[in-house]
Amino acid sequence: MRSTFKILFYINRQKTKADGKTGILCRITIDGKSAAISTGEECKPSEWNAKQGLTKDRKINQRLHEFRKFVEKTYRDILTRDGV
Questions:
Q1: Which residue in 6, 16, 19, 59 has a CA-CA distance of 20 to 30 Å to 76?
Q2: What is the Cα–Cα distance from 16 to 43, expressed in whole angstroms?
């Protein structure tokens, strides 16, 4: 059986804070079941690139890249432990 795995970074434009920033969320989908978690990062909606899932800030992009690597490593560990 093949397992599908996808990571998507997005922002919730509906929940903008007083300083104009909004939180960056991560949606993880495995075999059609999804879960959304907060990354702990924030950006202004005008700085968000929805197609690439990145901001204009290099430091935030680096932390999102590290977050993605951590999620992918955790998924690989689960696959090797439990099997596909």
A1: 59
A2: 10
